């Protein structure tokens, strides 16, 4: 806008008519503070091109990164209900509607099945934007149904955790999902179907205390916050300084809680390798003598 416009209409009018930068065009890194375009971010697997900081992803972004193109979403019609008529600053029903409107999701987890380098996989991916990725009754039910599907069809299961913990607006209904999902994973283990647990930033509370830590393989993205209570709460409780990097994925790997850490650009190939390693061999493999 030229200065003649400012002199003619005044500063307030000129500012009011100014066109803002379109939302979603630029990204400023939370860690290094450098700016890049959203296209550059997406082309770099949703990582900062300057410092490799892993940006939090939505459920469907993970589906797009991992699956071979098309996938089928499961149990998308399930909806949370306000069993307790719970109200804090506003009714729980209103919180649910607000979350659905803002995110376009029906709840804090989405389940899909598809192929990863031509091998079948079911993924349940949590979304932090839906009430902090909290685990309510629908989250637990979707995970349980996904496990049932994996047992029935003999398909490996990948859980991508990103959560603040149990959804306390559902009280005991939420807390029981810890036992429910853990029991279902026991059934999955007895059926000898592989379970892979990927922990992303953040994975905390009841999610960490249940299904997130029960994988045949537990792995995480770099610098993810993983723990039960947050560092600030622990520090205030024990009245001691915490070790540097406490509750990061690197700290957990060093202390034996994780099997490995994976950079997001390698995620699909690592999962493909896991599917290959855990693939059940043929019932009657043909020997070299039989081939001759």
Question: Can you walk me through this structure?
Answer:
The chain is built from twelve helices and nine strands. 37% of the residues lie in helices and 16% in strands. The relative contact order is 0.10. The model is unreliable at 1-22 (pLDDT under 50). The N and C termini lie far apart (82 Å). Strand 6, helix 7 and strand 7 form a beta-alpha-beta unit. Helix 6 packs parallel to helix 7 (172-190). The strands form two sheets. It has a seven-stranded mixed beta sheet, with helices on both faces. The chain has a two-stranded antiparallel ribbon with strand order 1-2. The radius of gyration is 23 Å and the shape is globular. The chain is of the alpha/beta class and 292 residues long.
Order of secondary-structure elements: HHEEHHEHEEHEHEHEHHEHH
Count of alpha/pi helices: 12
Specify the biggest β-sheet.
7 strands, mixed
| Helical proportion, percent range | 25-40%
Alpha-beta content class: alpha/beta
Radius of gyration: 23 Å
Distance between the amino and carboxyl termini: 82 Å
Beta strands, count: 9
State mean pLDDT (0 to 100 scale). Answer: 90
For the biggest β-sheet, the strand order reads 3-4-5-6-7-8-9
Low-confidence spans: 1-22
How would you summarize the topology of this molecule?
Layout: H1 3-9, H2 11-16, E1 26-28, E2 35-37, H3 38-43, H4 59-66, E3 71-74, H5 92-103, E4 109-116, E5 119-126, H6 137-153, E6 157-163, H7 172-190, E7 195-203, H8 205-208, E8 217-220, H9 231-238, H10 249-254, E9 260-261, H11 267-277, H12 288-291
Parallel strand pairs: 5-6, 6-7, 7-8, 8-9
Antiparallel strand pairs: 1-2, 3-4, 4-5
Helix pairs in contact: 6-7
